[in-house]
Design a protein that fits this description.
single chain, alpha/beta, Metallo-beta-lactamase, Chain A, 2 domains, five-stranded mixed sheet, 10 strands
Length: 214
């Protein structure tokens, strides 16, 4: 199958590295191959009709799935041991903040591929905001990046940057996220603080990537 696709492979319009081929596509492909085999062996009109219907259904599913992937907006904090990676997708555009590029292929690339050839911009950022959501990235111990004087809905802790009590009083986050760059002991301390303050705590080490529709 890979060799067949490679025949039509071309950078820019049909690059194999950007094809999102999921389980449902595999099921449709198996069904098409079975019907084609039956058609060649039995040469009956019914199998040709069934084959056309399956291909049409596959294409309709692909169009719906592709449109949904392209138009959705979401934030993803990836689970990468000893590193940090965040992507923010705003419909056709995706912004990626990645500390360690060596982890891209295994941990980040599969999700970006599912966006169906989105426009990706690699750029470090520590704050993003929408009408009903805001995320601040804290990666230095007790230090807020730049001049920051507002509350946030989500606070991402990375590189063992334990926030001070005064900072939490100032930011008033509803959710605190701990990524894979933190130690296990820091996650436990964060979980305890969140429990005392009534803040929801999410550890990517224990639950996998944090995905939030925007």
């Amino acid at each position: 199958m890979i060799n067949f696709i490679s025949v039509f492979n071309a950078e820019g319009w049909s690059f194999i590295d950007r094809i999102d081929f999921n389980f449902i596509d595999a099921a449709f492909l198996v069904l098409v191959l079975l019907l084609m085999t039956s058609l060649f062996m039995r040469r009956t009109y019914n199998y040709a009709l069934y084959l056309m219907l399956v291909i049409i259904c596959w294409q309709l599913y692909g169009l719906r799935d592709s449109n949904a992937a392209k138009t959705k907006s979401e934030l993803v904090v990836y689970q990468i041991p000893r590193s940090t990676a965040i992507s923010v997708k705003n419909k056709l555009h995706t912004f990626l903040s990645l500390v360690d590029s060596n982890s891209f292929t295994m941990n980040v690339k599969p999700n970006l591929t599912s966006y169906n050839n989105a426009i990706i911009t690699a750029s470090s950022f520590n704050f993003c905001k929408t009408d009903n959501f805001s995320l601040l990235v804290l990666d230095q111990k007790g230090k807020v990046p730049g001049y920051f004087n507002q509350s946030v809905s989500h606070l991402l802790i990375s590189n063992n940057a334990m926030p001070k009590q005064e900072l939490l009083d100032k930011l008033r986050p509803k959710v605190i996220i701990g990524d894979g760059s933190n130690s296990y002991s820091l996650d436990r301390r964060l979980e305890k603080i969140c429990g005392e303050r009534g803040i929801h705590f999410y550890s990517t080490r224990e639950k996998g990537a944090f995905v939030l529709p925007l």
